[in-house]
Amino acid sequence: MNLNPTRFIWMDGKLVPWGEAKVHVLTHTLHYGYGVFEGIRCYRTPRGAAVFRLRDHILRLQRSAETVGMKLPYSVEELIEATKQTIRANGVEECYIRPIAYYGYGAMGLNPRGSPLSVAIAVWPWGTYLGEEGLEHGVRVKISPWRRVHSSILPPTAKLVANYANSILAKLDALDSGYDEAILLNLEGSVSEGPGENIFIVESGTLVTPPISAGALAGITRDSIIRIAEDRGIPFKEDYISKEKLYAADEAFFTGTAAEVTPIREVDGHPIGNGKKGKITAELQAMYFRIVRGEERGYEEWLDYV
Ligand code: PY5
Q: What residue owns the CA closest to ligand 1's atom 9?
């Protein structure tokens, strides 16, 4: 097990000891994937633990739920408070936060509404998702034979549990082929994103990321990087990225709560730029870490102190 347990998990309003935070094996979401979740991080700052863009993440949880016709049993305010309460109860500063809304035990037909809709929030210390080495030197990625779920099939803009079977297939294929991570194209053959990360490239000094309509999740790290780039005068545009354009990029990197800002050094055996962390990537990555750690005054509105 590579998970670091903490003391309590919030389950429908109660702080339950980690080892007792269990669900029935006939939990509806376990069988059919109809649930929504979030991934959030809390960082140590000079003024105590701060959750990065907490409200934006909880709002996205609510939007994901609405997108798939689920009505969360708690308000945004209640979930923000519950998240902070869980962090405090566990006495952790730097942690990953996983809220999930799931249909429990009560019916086994496909109609989930016969089962109760529950929410749980777990927190645990989680190092960088693609490794320290990846953060510094970049990861090697493979374009997946699996295409990103199309909006006519499942909503790629929602953090729907079922979507992650698509992500897992891409991830496993990349790992089994000796790569660190995958990139999924959409049905039209254009780059959408990683299994759990948005993607950016740098092309002749311009930062480019696919639009949400390419099948990408509206990542909060993506949004943060766009704002940081604009503040620093780095030219930016949203545009479709072909596989060939990606191979020929000067720089490329992933963004995500778990993956933070991770350089990509190779795609399908093609080195990106000089095969090292690019200059603009390094600048944005350093700035991102300074902001989440409360070292940049201009971005205080993104920090929610616990
Ligand atoms: N795209 C997908 C499919 C994602 O799952 C994620 C986040 C992102 C993009 C990036 O979004 P954000 O910047 O808002 O985090 N993935 C989760 C995370 O916590 C789960 C990873 C296992 O990073």
A: 197
